[in-house]
Write a structure and sequence with these properties.
It holds the Pfam family Beta-prop_KIB1-4. This protein is of the alpha+beta class and 410 residues long. The chain has 9 helices and 25 strands.
């Protein structure tokens, strides 16, 4: 007679099955819950973290709280620190980090999940010098003049990476390491030639910093990382792709839409070792408050061809298996096949733009934070909602600007 076999415990789940479960969970919060079931599951899941697909992004609110793409709150420390010693004035989210600004203008990088922090001790003084030399901005902008922040490499790969920050609505660019910083602007000769002193967007590619102008000129910012504070604007900007004076920000519509306009926003993003220019076409109805009724109706994507001299933008209709999460503060390309839960390749997942969500205390009621957000399919030109209708309705009640946050499975 065969010996009676006692039933296996859930604690004895084979690692291969546990790995299969984790592979099917696109949310980092769900993966954490699985690991918290028992010690054997936690131990079995640990070696498999690096083989798992990247978790889906979260939506970050202006108050520092986070929700997943189903609208569920993420139970982790708030992005914004609030304690007896310091209170952060604001932040910019990018990738899995937050660029934090204290009330005194002190800046730092922080990973809210791990608690890792990198002080940027010289950045605020560099920005203050730029503000002092500006005719349009005062010292108050040391706290609220930041537009976008990016990093040259992850903190776990390089302990003191380059951090680049657009400030003063793109009129200046601050570049910092932990103990050094510089603030530069478009040199006068370039401003005269292009007709603009602004930078629309910035991106790192292979550790090099690039800047995009409103006329779609692409410039390499030539840096000596060991002597940042000695850099001068006139010697930093090297043109890779010439500005096109035909490119505009505002276009008047035809006779079928009298009095209305088209707005074109431009983004610069790295995707699978390529540098992309994304044009976002938006329709702005006549006499409508910005942010309430403007709608995105088309995207155009171009890749930088830097093998020729001068370089040029070449239009593309595919991301080559990638999906792009697009936003004013944070843009990130991911391999769609590595993502679960329906992330589609050749799609742009886009946020409502920052400019349309002014802070309530200064400019009145905020615009709908998800009014002009969605998913654009490059293959057929179709749009669909960014999140389910029920989630959309719930998030609208919060009336806070949203941005992308990409948690790493640490």
């Amino acid at each position: 007679m065969a010996a009676k076999v006692s039933p296996s415990s859930w604690e004895d789940l084979p690692p291969v099955l546990l790995g299969g479960v984790l592979q099917c969970l696109p949310s980092l919060a769900d993966r954490v819950r699985v690991r918290a079931v028992c010690r054997p599951w936690r131990a079995g899941a640990q070696p498999q973290r690096h083989s798992l697909p990247p978790p889906l992004p979260w939506l970050a609110f202006r108050d520092g709280s986070l929700v997943d793409l189903q609208g569920s709150p993420v139970h982790c420390p708030s992005i914004l620190r609030k304690d007896a010693l310091t209170e952060v004035f604001g932040y910019l989210a990018f990738d899995n980090l937050a660029f934090l600004v204290d009330h005194d203008g002190t800046c730092s990088l922080s990973n809210p999940i791990t608690g890792e922090t990198l002080p940027l001790t010289k950045l605020a003084p560099a920005v203050r010098r730029a503000i002092d030399g500006s005719r349009a901005y005062g010292r108050a902008y040391i706290q609220k003049g930041y537009v976008k922040a990016i990093i040259s490499s992850p903190l776990d790969l390089m302990p003191d990476p380059l951090v680049a920050v657009l400030i003063l609505e793109g009129y200046s660019l601050a570049i910092s390491k932990q103990h050094d910083a510089v603030c530069i602007s478009m040199p006068p000769e370039l401003e005269k030639a292009t007709g603009s002193a602004m930078i629309d967007d910035i991106a790192f590619l292979h550790g090099k910093l690039y800047a995009l102008t409103p006329h779609e000129g692409l410039y390499l910012i030539e840096l000596d990382a060991s002597r940042l504070s000695e850099l001068k604007s006139s010697s930093c900007f090297r043109q890779c792709i010439a500005d096109d004076p035909k490119q505009q920000e505002i276009y008047s519509t035809n006779k079928h839409h009298p009095g209305s306009e088209y707005l074109v926003m431009r983004y610069l993003a790295e995707s699978n070792g390529r540098l992309l220019l994304i044009r976002r076409w938006m329709f702005i109805p006549q006499n409508a408050r910005l942010g309430d009724h403007d709608r995105t109706f088309r995207f155009e994507v171009f890749v930088a061809d830097l093998a020729t001299v001068p370089g040029r933008w070449t239009k593309v209709d595919s991301f080559g298996g990638q999906a792009l999460f697009l936003g004013s503060e944070c843009s990130k390309s991911v391999l769609a096949s590595q993502c679960a839960d329906g992330i589609e390749e050749d799609c742009i997942y886009f946020m409502h733009r920052v400019f349309d969500n002014p802070c309530r205390e200064h400019f009145g009621p905020c615009a709908d934070p998800l009014a002009d957000s969605g998913v654009y399919n490059m293959r057929n030109g179709e749009f669909k909602p960014l999140v389910p209708d029920a989630v959309m309705a719930e998030l609208k009640r919060k009336r806070q600007f949203l941005t992308w946050f990409f948690p790493a499975d640490e």
